[in-house]
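Hey Z.,

So I finally got round to the D-MYO-inositol-1-phosphate thing we talked about over coffee. Here's the setup:
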Amino acid sequence: AGGPWEECFQAAVQLALRAGQIIRKALAEEKRVSTKTSAADLVTETDRLVEDLIISELRKRFPSHRFIAEEAAASGAKCVLTPSPTWIIDPIDGTCNFVHRFPTVAVSIGFAVRQELEFGVIHHCTEERLYTGRRGQGAFCNGQRLRVSGETELSRALVLTEIGPKRDPATLRLFLSNMERLLHGRAHGVRVIGSSTLALCHLASGAADAYYQFGLHCWDLAAATVIVREAGGIVMDTSGGPLDLMSCRVVAAGTREMAILIAQALQTINCGRDDEK
Ligand code: IPD
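And the result:
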C-alpha cells in the first residue's frame, strides 16, 4: 500500500462506495430515462447526480486535477488526456441494466498521471464488490487478490463483448459477424452482460478468458485497464498494437496469445475517437 497517490486512491474508494449506495437505492425507484447518441444510449438523473457528486467532492480535495467524465462529455466537454493528474469517471456503467434493474451495474473511477494509468476503482454496486487495481501493486476484489486465467486456446475460451450504442445495420452486421467468427473458432461461449467495466473485472478475476469491444469509451476502459493488467492480463488495441485509451476499441485477455488470436479474428468496426468528438 502507500505510494504517491495514496490519498487520491482512498478518495476514489470512498466515493465509489458512496455512489454505489445512491445507485442501489435508485435502482428500486421509478426512473426518468433520456437518450443520447442513439435509442439504446441511455442516461438517467442518477447518472448525472452521481457524476456531479464524485466530481465536486474530488475537485474540493484536488483543485488542480482534471476530469474526463461520461455525462460531461455527453454535454460537449472535450476528452483530452493531458499530463496533468486526470480522473476518468463513469458514474453508472451499465445504465441500460440500471434502467431495467438487471443487476450488473458499476461505478468506475480511473486515475492517470503523465498519461499513464495509476489506479482504477470499480464498484459492482448490485453485488457490493469493490474491484481495485494500482500500478505495480496488484488487483483485488474485496481484498482478495485477482488473477487472470492462463488460457491460450480459443477453442477453450469464454469470451465477453458488448454491443455498444451504435445500432445501424452495417454496424450490427459486423458485430454479429465478429461473434460468428469466434464461435466458428469454437470458443466455448460469447457473453454480453451490459457493462464493459464489469466484463473486464470478470476477465481480471479469471471468470472469462477474453474481452473485446468496438464503440466503448475511455471512461469504460480507464479503471478496468489497470485492474486487468495488475491481475496479469493484457489490454491492447484491436489491431494488435498498444492500447489507445481514446480509440473506442479494445481487446483484452489473460494471455498475449489469446489477445492476438481474438484480434486476428475480428473485423474492425469504425466508431471514431473520444478525443475527436
Ligand atoms: C456502456 C455499457 C455498455 C457498453 C457501452 C458503454 P454506460 O456504458 O458499458 O455495455 O456496450 O460501450 O458505453 O453508457 O452504461 O455507462
